[in-house]
Design goal:
The complex is a heterodimer of chains A (201) and B (624).
Chain A (H helix, E strand, L loop, with lengths): L2 E8 L4 H14 L3 E6 L9 E9 L16 E4 L2 H6 L10 E5 L6 H5 L7 H8 L5 E5 L1 H9 L4 H12 L7 H11 L4 H17 L2
Parallel strand pairs in A: 1-4, 4-5, 5-6
Antiparallel strand pairs in A: 1-3, 2-3
Chain B lengths: L9 E5 H11 L4 E4 L7 H13 L2 E4 L3 H13 L4 E6 H17 L5 E7 L14 H7 L3 E2 L4 H17 L4 E6 H4 L1 E6 L16 H4 L5 H20 L4 E4 L5 E6 L2 H12 L5 E4 L1 E3 L3 H9 L3 E5 L5 H13 L4 E3 L12 H11 L7 H12 L14 H12 L5 E3 L24 H12 L4 E6 H17 L6 E6 L28 H7 L3 E6 L3 H13 L4 E6 L3 H11 L5 E4 L9 H5 L5 E4 L8 E4 L9 H5 L5 E4 L4
Parallel strand pairs in B: 2-3, 2-4, 4-5, 5-7, 6-7, 10-11, 10-13, 13-14, 15-16, 16-17, 17-19, 18-19
Antiparallel strand pairs in B: 1-8, 6-12, 9-11, 20-23, 21-22
The chains are: A alpha/beta (201), B alpha/beta (624).
């Protein structure tokens, strides 16, 4: 069984690091890993997609996820969730969305209003088996004084909600390797996310 | 993800990192590159690990110099490598051709990354495989990170064995894909060499040239004979319908057959020049129909069609009849083509696409923008104030290409590194229009010096040249250039002075602080009145780069805020300046907006404070 996870957010906001954590955790659990990490222009505040796939070497080949074939979509910015619908389908895709609006300058420039959260969920629903929204950036700021930890917390939420078939312990180990300067905070944020995921909000 | 993972362990690597590891395992001693996406992580990784591993690494001023540096090392007996994006090879090509004729002593690998789809803001989709044919150099194409490592390691040997430089070609989804990789062992490389004079060998003029031509063809023939089998993978299957592919298309072919439950015969080419003719002919001999999967041009397809004339004249060859030449492949493009020739059912991807388009209808796009605090935004804003709307904005390659988007729309054309000067000059030669040519600091050293010298030399009315000096090659990840003050190995070095060079060329030069509208406007006004070669160096460090430096030192930026009493809601800061940190909020539809600076996104450049017509923006206090 191949598991395909799609990560989307705004360039420079730590989406890539979150995706790398998932890839490393999957690797640590003995999975064969493939995926896509686009670099370059995408970092300049544009919407940045990253893909991670894991499973068996005998079945998994393509680095990129096929249209409608993602098992999980993690949106680190709520509006970007809608742009990930290409990879989603009613049959198999769960959305985990961070309630954290980052208004693109084009909302003003082109006079296209930034939609409110219920509108975003309404647009995503036809492509989703399951939509979960968490306010992890807000909680991370409130509880740890650092909104960036919301990303790790959101990963924890996906684990807690059993939407990402990997173990918490694998992430603890990966955090030590990838975020050596803030191990304790990241692990606490991750565990807090697991708790949120179990509760479902 | 560790490029320096212990020998014989498994790790997850980016394609470019795996290639770097492969080069290390091959004992590469010298690596020289100009950064270019999608190949940039090869030099970026070497830059990080060079000292630790004993490799000499440099960021060269352009790809031609980088290639020449690597060739000089290889001629002196030290294994060398260069990596570049597809356009980089156009710059380097002048030297690559002759070096291929002369050959090398130690292994020389030239990595070139093509970018179908133009993810990296490429100005055309170029298929580098034609270069291999033109220069008669062997070309190898890995399909995934594991092959990236294995091929790189192996082809250093082949290059050395046949004394010929070799191409390693990737496309975006090989360079920028991750995969589980089993690594081998690396040791300290040999970095000491000696150039041995040998006129017989290096004399590439007539009549030796013809002899060399014959020799290089003989080398290719020998490589084809010896290595075709090693670089060809056959997946056995049943039936008379089959797939031939190379590069990342192989990954799509394999997964497509898994998804469709097929036992299809697949032949994968790891060496695409010279092609494995014997293996290809044997493979197509007993087939009725083949589908050739390759991104961009139908090079393998045409070759197979040619081989089939002798091997199997009745063979039906599919490829670009079912798949596009433009853009990159992915599963939803490959799966329907495979399903079609194997007569299987496939999901209707096109019907779904319509629904997806409806889902995003009316939503604001998130195109890339100048970062908050970017000096380029400030420069474009000032230039826009000083010059009339009908000014010709000659564009170039760097972060400032983003000036093409709203609200600036100040890159009328974008051609290649340095072309803003040449084309701007050409327009000035025939038109009375004002021309402003934008050029970056890294681009200045890469390809602008000949353009500037030409303008100085051919004393006609010239464009106003604006050097957008943000101190590093920002677009590809803050690599140093000759005016940055540090090398690719992190050593401090004297900065070259862009203004001194321009003055030496006889230009009227002004240097402005890119974060000061007043300074920019007054210097632009001055230059506008002058004639001849005029250069404004607009200097302001890339804010992202400054931010990273300050963060390491534990220092925070200032932050700016809007005085709601003074704000007249004119919208200049959002509509004309368009800083992503400034947000326009409408509580309800039709309500008057509120403007707010998001402190999490403000990097304290202060330019919004300078452009606010009502003095409503002021320095604030950053929350700890």
């Amino acid at each position: 069984m191949t598991f395909s996870a799609f990560f989307i957010g705004v360039g420079g906001e730590g989406v890539l690091t979150s995706a790398v954590m998932v890839a490393e955790a999957a690797h640590a659990e003995g999975h064969y890993v493939r995926g896509v990490q686009l670099h370059g222009l995408a970092q300049r505040g544009g919407s940045i997609p990253t893909e991670v796939r894991f499973g068996s070497e005998k079945e998994l080949f393509s680095p990129g996820i096929m249209q409608g074939d993602a098992d999980l979509i993690m949106a680190f910015e709520q509006l970007e969730a809608v742009r990930a619908t290409h990879y989603a389908s009613k049959e198999k895709t769960s959305f985990v969305i961070e309630d954290n609006p980052f208004m693109p300058v084009y909302a003003n420039l082109l006079d296209m209003p930034y939609p409110k959260l219920p509108e975003i969920v309404r647009r995503v629903k036809p492509f989703a088996k399951n939509v979960m929204v968490f306010n992890t950036a807000y909680l991370a700021e409130k509880e740890f004084g650092n909104a960036v930890l919301g990303n790790t917390m959101l990963l924890g939420a996906a684990i807690g909600a059993k939407l990402l078939p990997l173990k918490s312990q694998s992430f603890h180990a990966v955090i030590k390797e990838l975020a050596p300067r803030m191990v304790k905070e990241n692990i606490m944020a991750f565990d807090r996310g697991v708790e949120l995921g179990k509760r479902g909000k | 993800m560790s490029v320096l993972a212990p020998a014989n362990s498994k790790t997850v690597l980016l394609g470019n990192e795996a290639i770097t590891r492969g080069a290390l395992e091959a004992g590469v001693g010298v690596v020289a590159c100009y950064p270019g996406t999608p190949s940039s992580e090869v030099p970026a990784t070497f830059s990080r690990i060079a000292k630790e591993t004993g490799v000499y690494f440099e960021y060269s001023s352009n790809e031609k110099v980088a290639f020449e540096t690597a060739a000089g090392a290889a001629w002196s007996g030290v294994r060398a490598m260069t990596a570049m994006k597809h356009f980089g090879l156009n710059v380097a090509a002048d030297s690559v051709g002759p070096v291929a004729y002369v050959g090398v002593k130690a292994g020389l690998v030239v990595m070139v990354s093509d970018d179908p789809n133009g993810w990296s803001s490429a100005q055309s989709e170029q298929d580098t495989r034609y270069y291999a044919r033109m220069f008669r150099m062997p070309m190898f194409e890995p399909a995934n990170p594991q092959e990236g490592l294995d091929y790189t390691k192996k082809i250093f040997d082949i290059s050395e064995e046949f004394e010929i430089p070799v191409f390693l070609r990737t496309t975006t989804k090989v360079s920028h894909s991750i995969g589980t990789v089993k690594v081998g062992r690396y040791k300290k490389p040999n970095r000491k060499g000696k150039f041995k004079k040998d006129m017989q060998r290096y004399y590439n003029l007539r009549p030796n040239l013809q002899k060399m031509h014959r020799a290089i063809d003989a080398k290719l023939e020998a490589i084809q004979k010896k290595y075709s089998k090693n670089f060809t993978t056959e997946i056995k299957g049943s039936g008379k319908t089959a797939i031939i592919c190379s590069g990342v298309s192989y990954e799509y072919a394999r997964e497509a057959t898994v998804l469709l439950g097929l036992k299809a015969p697949i032949l994968k080419l790891g060496m695409t020049h010279p092609m494995p003719d014997k293996e290809l002919s044997a493979f197509i001999k007993n087939k009725d129909e083949v589908l050739v999967l390759e991104e961009l041009q139908p090079i393998i397809e045409e070759h197979v069609t040619q081989l089939a004339k002798a091997a199997n004249p009745k063979l039906v060859v599919h490829g670009k009849d079912l798949l596009p030449k433009e853009g990159e492949y992915n599963l939803e493009k490959v799966l329907p083509a495979v399903a079609k020739i194997f007569k299987k059912k496939c999901p209707d991807f096109a019907a779904r696409t319509k629904k997806e388009q409806d889902a995003v209808k009316g939503l604001p796009p998130r195109k890339p923008v100048f970062c908050a605090g970017c000096p380029h935004r400030s420069t474009f804003y000032a230039v826009n104030k000083v010059f009339p709307k009908d000014t010709v904005w000659a564009g170039d390659i760097g972060c400032y290409v983003l000036g093409i988007f709203e609200p600036f729309e100040m890159q009328d054309f974008i051609v290649s590194m340095g072309a803003s000067l040449g084309i701007g000059h050409g327009i000035s030669c025939v038109s009375d229009q004002e021309v402003v040519a934008f050029i970056g600091d890294s681009t200045f050293f890469h390809a602008s010096l000949p353009g500037l010298a030409n303008m100085a030399f051919n004393n006609c009315k010239s464009p106003l040249v604006i050097v957008m000096d943000n101190s590093v090659t920002a677009m590809t990840g803050h690599q140093p250039h000759p005016a940055s003050g540090f090398t690719g190995m992190g050593d401090p070095v004297k900065k070259l002075s862009i203004e001194d060079i321009c003055k030496e060329l006889g230009a009227e030069v002004r240097v402005a602080n890119a974060f000061s509208q007043k300074d920019l406007v007054s210097k632009l006004e001055e230059l506008k009145k002058l004639k001849g070669l005029r250069v404004l160096v607009s200097r302001g460090e890339c804010r992202l780069f400054t931010k990273r430096k300050l963060r390491k030192q534990g220092v925070d930026f200032p932050v700016f805020e809007i005085d709601q009493e003074k704000c007249k809601k004119c919208g200049v800061c959002t509509d004309q300046f368009a800083c992503p940190a400034i947000v326009e909020i409408h509580e309800k539809k039709g309500d008057k907006p509120t403007y707010w600076i998001n402190p999490d996104h403000c990097w304290g450049c202060s330019v919004c404070m300078q452009i606010c017509p009502y003095g409503a923006i002021r320095a604030g206090v950053r929350k700890k």
